[in-house]
Amino acid sequence: MFANWLRSGWASGRVTTRYPFHRTEILQQHSNWHVVPKIVASCSRSECSCTHLCPTGAIGKDVTGVWLNQAACIGCGRCVTQCPVGVFAWSPVIDLAVTQMESLRTRTEP
Amino acid sequence: MLTEARPLIGDWNQLEQTTATTLRKVFHRSVYVRHIDVGSCNACESEILSLSNPYYNFHRLGVFFTSSPRHADLLLVSGVVTRPLKEVLLATYEAMPKPRLVVAIGVCALHGGVFHSSPWVVGTVDSVIPVDAWVPGCPPTPFAILQGILSAVQHRQGVCLDE
Questions:
Q1: Is residue A78, in this structure, part of any structural domain at all?
Q2: Does residue B14 have a pLDDT over 80?
Q3: Residue of chain B whose Cα is closest to the Cα of A75
Q4: Complex ipTM above 0.85?
Q5: B3 touches chain A (CB under 8 A)
Q6: A90 occurs within a structural domain
């Protein structure tokens, strides 16, 4: 491989190398380019409120559970780090575009 | 980074191929995209600019940027609609020939994001003009923006063409 690279470089008059020479970790995991919070557990606690964690009002809570509006989520991660129950977790997703606004809203399973 | 192959994500290649045929059915040749910023923080603009670089390279699908709304088939709107730019957005939309598509990009355009309680904000993009596809994310990745453009065109195929 090294000899081929050197020979082709001499033949064309300039010896160059590929940059970056080694694939970085983020490029090896293309699916983790973009992560968004996702509801992974159900929550029935009434003593704590997770709606105040969200700066844009993407999280709502009522008697049936927690809902998350993906259209308002800016990915700050406060819900993931500060929820004591662990309702939210990072989820790798890259194809987020939708043609129906309602499909961006997710709920906990009852 | 620019010398590496494009990432293969799920059925992305199939989506690209079906959309490439859909593009020719709906718009006959190619789609020209006009981007308008109606109050964005320029993070979405940075991602939109990445669409035309050699890595994402949306020209291979027949999608191009244009500088005039009169030549445009699709309007990319980024940012929350502010009071001074509402008339500009409406004028841009009126200047586009039919059939025209609108893709709203970013959390600000969809919901308002961190600016939703500002007094200089009129509202979301779909409260001003009809929107065909929504791309959430703050900012969305260029792949998500490209998927938004493609799904808007695919969605339009099932709708009446002369609006």
A1: yes
A2: no
A3: B138
A4: no
A5: yes
A6: yes
